[in-house]
Write a structure and sequence with these properties.
six-stranded parallel sheet, 14 helices
């Protein structure tokens, strides 16, 4: 048995490395630079250590029982029997789902598909998307018939970027198949490497729905506490103090207010919302949560400006240090980071922002957002310091190095124990 993993990003590479501990695995990605980096034993996403990656890499699989070979050549996928597609599913500027990566990946697999092969999708989609969008592409590209010549499965990814405790094999996996028998095969495949176990869903649609509501539920809960933060700010109450007190009850859910970005929580609800609207239902609660969370960058920038005015700090040309640009702490992932919204809104007030993030690639941030960042610690004083991302390095940093006698500190993450002027 040989497994092909299509897409070697935050999801695909850790999965490929895990399967390669037991099987022959071909990792495929259209980005040659990414392929070269991996074959050199480096993972710039930092999901895998150099040692863990190098343990599974092999030059070729011909004489091997297991191992990982990575390539951008479709020919390398030709003799695989399982294909696992792990490409991203983003939204466009109008918040509509973008299926282009999924369609292109399906076309690629279709070109090498053989009788009895199984194609498994891990990309987050709305219920029904695998069979409505992906399968027709596979049929057209391969010239074969679904559930007669080839089969499909769906097993939603649950990778948590930057989390070194809950790695892929330690997270229980939902599985499914296009027939009962294929479901069992897909489940056994994952069960052979996932130590946390698996849950076999009755249908692909059920598995798809389970994934999309995981992040939608979190999005709505965070939107609720973000709204609470706005209310308590008007009442002059510290939100963190309120949440700490409420958290003493055994069944209180410990969500925190903040910026909601990334490739999952800030995106997945739109997939479910679109499907609901196509069926004539407007998901008011889901979309309300999205509006609240998408508006937090603008809200926070306004709170910072108000804080400056309250303390007689001149706004125009004020030097503002933004600590962090990634979408979450201790992780280099800048996909859909909402810190960008905060920065862009602050810049409208003509302040001078400096963005410092030792985790984020300055080249990637500039290419994606047109913002200049630095991985080097600034050697100057600032009028305002904004803790936007709670990297462990920032929490241990002596912020006095960046302060003068009137410096204001706004703690977006609510992580600073003392020294802050205000916090969300």
């Amino acid at each position: 048995m040989k497994i092909g993993i299509i897409g070697l990003g935050y999801v695909g590479l850790p999965l490929a490395a895990l399967f390669a501990t037991k099987y022959k695995v071909v990792g495929f990605d259209i980005n040659q630079k990414r392929v070269d980096e991996i074959n050199a034993g480096k993972d710039n996403t930092l999901e895998l250590s150099d040692l863990d990656l190098q343990k599974v890499l092999v030059e070729n699989l011909d004489a091997k029982e297991k191992g990982l070979v990575c390539s951008s050549s479709i020919e390398e996928l030709a003799d695989c029997t399982y294909y696992i597609i792990t490409v991203p599913t983003p939204v466009d500027d109008t918040k509509r789902p973008v299926f282009t990566p999924l369609i292109k990946a399906s076309e690629t697999v279709g070109k090498v598909l053989k009788p009895n092969d199984i194609v498994i999708y891990e990309s987050t989609v709305y219920p029904g998307a695998t069979e409505e969008i992906c399968i027709p592409v596979l049929e057209k590209s391969s010239g074969m018939v679904f559930n007669k010549d080839f089969y499909a499965g769906y097993s939603p990814e649950r990778i948590n970027p930057g989390d070194k405790k809950h790695t892929v094999e330690k997270i229980l996996k939902v599985t499914s198949g296009s027939t009962k028998e294929i479901g069992q095969k897909v489940d056994e495949l994952y069960k052979s490497v996932i130590t946390a176990g698996t849950h076999l869903a009755p249908t692909i649609k059920v598995a798809e729905a389970s994934k999309v509501i995981e992040n939608t539920q979190r999005d709505i809960n965070i939107a609720f506490v973000n709204e609470l933060a706005k209310i308590f700010a008007l009442l002059g109450i510290d939100t963190n103090d309120v949440l700490e007190a409420a958290g003493t009850k055994w069944n209180f859910l410990p969500f925190k207010p903040g910026l909601v970005g990334g490739h999952c929580i800030g995106v997945d609800p739109y997939y479910l919302a679109q499907k609901a609207q196509e069926h004539g239902y407007n998901p008011d609660l889901i979309l309300a949560g999205r509006r609240i969370n998408d508006g937090m960058g603008e809200y926070l920038s306004l709170q910072i400006i108000k804080l400056m005015l309250k303390h007689d700090t001149q706004v125009k040309d004020a030097k503002v240090l933004i600590l962090g640009i990634t979408f979450k702490e201790d992780c280099p992932d800048v996909r859909n980071t909402k810190v960008v919204d905060l920065v862009n809104n602050l810049n409208e007030y003509r302040v001078k922002t400096t963005i410092y993030d030792p985790w984020a690639s300055p080249e990637e941030v500039f290419q994606e957002y047109g913002l200049v960042t630095t991985q080097e610690k600034p050697n100057e004083k600032f009028d305002v310091i904004v803790l936007a991302v709670s990297h462990d390095k920032f929490l241990k940093e002596d912020l006095s190095k960046f302060q003068h006698e009137k410096t204001l500190i706004y703690d977006v993450k609510g992580k600073l124990v003392n020294g802050y002027t205000a916090r969300l």
